[in-house]
Amino acid sequence: MTAVIRKQDTFRTCAVCNRTLLMGERAARFSPHGNDQWVDVCALCTDVANEYGWLKEGTPTTPLVPEAPRRRRRFRGFGLGGAPDTRRHEPQPTFSEPVLRRLSEPEQAMVEAADLFNESAYRRTIAGIAKSLGQARVSFLPLSGTNTEVVLTIAWDISWYQYRVVFDSQQPVRLAERGYELDEVDDRFRGWNGHLAQDGRVTPDIPKL
């Protein structure tokens, strides 16, 4: 008897961005823990899976060692006479130190969240999506609480991604939610106050002068 292939039998999602893979779309298989448990990863997210240290199917059995997370720059000392952080080998920050000094705490949080996202592997994923979907809307929303946290929303008409940036965390940037309809995004996260560059870098719309 001929087997019947049902739609749910072929339903696959990318383990990194959680996007539903299209019928016939090619995907690589990775093992997050280096064992016999495999997940699908779309072509846009293979670099992210590699940076996570996931083992790609067909490669040697020794998994890659993920890069240690960078320590964040701290802005809170500026108002108390603290000296700027002069660590070497850091990516170019979104704003210069003189500009940062005059920003409010919520604005400083937005800038730091942008820098942390731009240093993360998610930036390349978003850059790849933007090549297909074009210009995106960007929202930064600092949350009140003991630990400084910023919700970063990047949205197109047919897809959106929401990241949580928690500064004092071993993994400061994580994908929190995603969806397909812009109306699914809560109104408080739709105060579009940033923009997305072609390379996937995000920047809050704060005047530099």
Explain what you see.
The structure is a single chain. The chain has 209 residues and is an alpha+beta fold. The protein has 2 domains: 8-56, no CATH class; 78-204, no CATH class. 18% of the residues lie in helices and 22% in strands. The chain has 4 helices and 9 strands; from the N terminus they run ββαβαααββββββ. It has helices at 46-51, 97-101, 105-119, 122-133, and strands spanning 27-31, 39-42, 55-56, 137-143, 149-156, 159-166, 173-179, 194-196, 202-204. The strands form 3 sheets. It has a 4-stranded antiparallel beta sheet, with helices on one face. The chain has a 3-stranded antiparallel beta sheet with strand order 2-1-3. The radius of gyration is 19 Å and the shape is globular. The termini are far apart. Residues 1-9, 62-72 and 74-90 have low confidence and may be disordered.
What's the structural blueprint in terms of helices and strands?
Elements: E1 27-31, E2 39-42, H1 46-51, E3 55-56, H2 97-101, H3 105-119, H4 122-133, E4 137-143, E5 149-156, E6 159-166, E7 173-179, E8 194-196, E9 202-204
Antiparallel strand pairs: 1-2, 1-3, 4-5, 5-6, 6-7, 8-9
